[in-house]
Amino acid sequence: MTYCAGEAFKQADAELNQVYSEAMRAMQSLDEGLTGSGLEGAADALREAQRAWVPFRDKACISQGFMARGGSMEPMLVVGCKATLTQQRIEDLKNLAEGLGN
């Protein structure tokens, strides 16, 4: 079960990287349209948000693991949580990119 959860996380992480790149391109495009207006910063905001989200996900999932602390289920709970939160982040990023017309 831990192996399967790990594989699900690997797949989700690969998809996250792809979707993040798409969202970043959308934010960069938005910034290009705002050049010189003083309203730029969309790409920087997304980059900072993603850099903050990764440690959040990891710590939140470690806390989930405490439901089976020291047991054989702990790693499965942690990696399963990472897969779930990563899928949620993928949807958030897709919605962001779509909201910007991409």
UniProtKB/TrEMBL annotation:
Pfam families: LprI
Domain Lysozyme inhibitor LprI-like N-terminal: 1-93
Alphabetical list of Gene3D superfamilies matching this protein: 1.20.1270.180
Superkingdom per UniProt: Bacteria
Parts forming coiled coils: none
Name listed for the protein in its UniProt record: DUF1311 domain-containing protein
Source species: Roseibium limicola
